[in-house]
Amino acid sequence: MNWNDLxxxxxxxxxxxxxxxxxxxxxxxxxxxxxxxxxxxxxxxxGYELALRQAAVVLGTIEDHPGRPILLLVDTQGQQLRRADExxxxxxxxxxxxxxxxxxxxxxxxxxxVVYDQALSGGFIxxxxxxxxxxxxxxxxxxxxxxPAMARITKIPEATLxxxxxxxxxxxxxxxxxxxxxxxxxxxxxDDPASGLRTALAARNTRDVRAADGEQRGGRTAARPTVQKVxxxx
Length: 234
Prior knowledge:
Low-confidence stretches: none
Number of helices: 11
Largest sheet: 9 strands, mixed
Strand content: 15-25%
Order of helices and strands: HEEEEHEHHEHEEHHHEHHH
Mean pLDDT: 92
Distance between the termini: 46 Å
Oligomer: single chain
CATH class of the domain at 3-137 and 188-203: Alpha Beta
Helix content: 40-55%
Radius of gyration: 18 Å
């Protein structure tokens, strides 16, 4: 689903979201409240400039509209793989974006992410995964990296990784696996995404329950007990 269709299904004509060189930004009226809408499109690669442009929108919302909910529309192929961005400090720019989203949450802004198309790697980590909750449409594509790339990095044969992915969601791409691991809170009905957004805003959860969700859903069974052991020992 493209962002125009999603915006129409969520808000009808009650929005002014616009596309500016892969950046989505604007406001929308939802159940009588005004939301800040921010995101990316065209499978955007998040580089130095795009990260800072997103961060500026978040900071502007914090300063000018305290407490206004923020909806993150996620469609990214990950971080921009260019030498120029590395020289400029893409790592610091993306960290800045993540810190801005975290600041918004701590200042009382409900931050809801939804993957409506594609979410990969660092572009997903610094946006949707830093929201209060991240949701997705069923047809979305989510993965950390492709199995061939994972095989090169880990030095584990691709055939072994493919076999592991059949039983372990950690190794497997696909939105269902990210739901099982707890990274994605829920899947929204593409015919009625407004119901999903309404539920997420009404039941805003500022606690990180991803490890608990992953344990309950059977996709990441060791994370919560491990975290608890660390807390108990602290």
